[in-house]
Amino acid sequence: MGILDEFDPKRDGWSFENFTTADLSWDLYRRTYLAINPTENVIESPLDVAFYQIFKGCAAQGNCGGISVLALALFRFGGYMGYGSPAFFYAGGANGPDRTDLYEALNIMQARQFSAPGIRNFVDVVKAGQLNDGHAAFTRIQGGLASGDYHVLSVSNGLFGDAAHTIVPYRAEFIGSQRVLHVWNSNRPYDAFPHHYDNDLNKIVITGPTQWRYDQGDGGTAYDGSNNGWFFAIPTSLIRHKGRQPISASFVLTSLTLLFVSGTGSVAQIEDDQGRRLFTGAREHELRGDLETAEDRRLTGVAPWPWMGGLGGDRPGELYVVEQPEGSRPLTVTVKGGDYTLQQLSRDQLTELAQQDGRVAVDQIRLDGVGADVNLAIRTGAARRRFDVRYVKAETAGRWQGVRVRNALVTDDVVRVRVPAGGTSVEVSAGDKPREVDVEFERGRGKRLSTSTLGSQRLPGGKVLVAEPGKWTAVRTTKKR
Questions:
Q1: How many C-beta atoms lie closer than 10 Å to residue 452's C-beta?
Q2: Helix 64-77 vs helix 100-111: angle between axes, to the nearest 10 degrees?
Q3: How many alpha carbons fall within 13 Å on the CB side of residue 23?
């Protein structure tokens, strides 16, 4: 397209509607990022498998991000990923495109919201206090339109992205004192909703940083800045390219941590030892107004990820992005529920806690250490509750060390698990009541998994159990391909 051309919703938007994809396959995962193992194999690539638990659900609420980014790529370059402009050429309907290959390409572009630069952009927006800032978003979009680095716009009505949606702003103009964005919306393709565009209903009027509104009409969600949701711009240059997934071994984002809670648990609070907290109280959180804003109480460097799908529905889990330097203050995560898994993922390592008895209770998990010794402490509001803890440390490609502490009983005391740097030993302690835990060390060497199973270990009351691997036994080898 020429530099003076403008994105035309009728020509450059897809003819089909936004669609959901319940779970993305491992093959799509491999095609989305560089250096992903060809198969879903916990022996060869445990960190890839861990991040896949986040990745696979990112289109469950819709593919608006991928649809928007690929539409702009076709418009900007005349073609991308083997598809040519104009986008309206490709047929489809309410369930997405007719072509399977295009369907998968849109899945891939949707998942690239988790690119390291995309996450970096989100963290920078959080730091700048611009998650819901119409003026800041307008300025970035206007600059992108002028330079050719087009942006997509993320909007929502709630803390975790109530119907969080990604749309294409293709014109930015001042009308009097108002800033106005004209947008193309994958929920409203021109073929099915020509009146949305012909009647100039596809515009967002911004009268202040949090005074903006976009009504999709036809029974769709109306987005309003007063709902304290999201309104921020994302340069497509950051998220359309294939790169490494953000917790890859030796990746550059050394201070990045992801906290992911899946299953039936939900996060009620995240706080540090000084009482700084993410939320104003321990309850169900839906509005961005639930975030603590008082300077003396606000927890910085932690933000909930906005699942961008555009069609609403259940989220695949709760994801929090944490950016704190190594050796920074510990965080305590309060989780309400049962049958849940809490994962802490960072460069080269995974700490995972699984609660599996199904009873609803409130648990507090204190996480201390990324990049050095890892310390985890568990409290529960239940009379008694059992947890499994796993730690994995990647060394080099295809080589990793890990340990599992299973069946840890927590009553009215605290169970602590410490893994010194490298994962070659483990320390477990509790209160004054003795108990037993099962300990197993693991190590992966290419296609071979070896374990050192110590079995049930007695944990004396008030003392620390120190366990190291004994005899290693090769238990599984992947087949050669």
A1: 17
A2: 100
A3: 5
Contact 447, 480 (CB under 8 A): yes
What DSSP line would sit under 72-116, residue for residue? Answer: HHHHHHSEETTEES-GGGS-EETTEES-HHHHHHHHHHHHGGGSH
Q: How far apart are CA 320 and CA 307, in angstroms?
A: 11
Q: Which of 58, 59, 64 has its CA nearest to residue 13?
A: 64
Among 341, 363, 339, smallest CA distance to 350 is for: 341
Tokens of 313: 């529905």
> Could you tell me the CA-to-CA distances from 222 to 196, 214, 227 in Å, in that order?
14, 6, 10
pTM passes above 0.85? yes
Asked whether the beta carbons of 209 and 136 are under 8 A apart, the reply is: yes
Strand 243-244 with 33-34, pairing: parallel
**Do 211 and 225 contact (CB within 8 A), yes or no?**
yes
Segment 60-71, tens digit of pLDDT: 999 999 999 999
Distance CA 346, CA 349 (A): 6
Summarize pLDDT for 88-132 with one digit per residue, the tens. 999 999 999 999 999 999 999 999 988 878 888 888 898 888 989
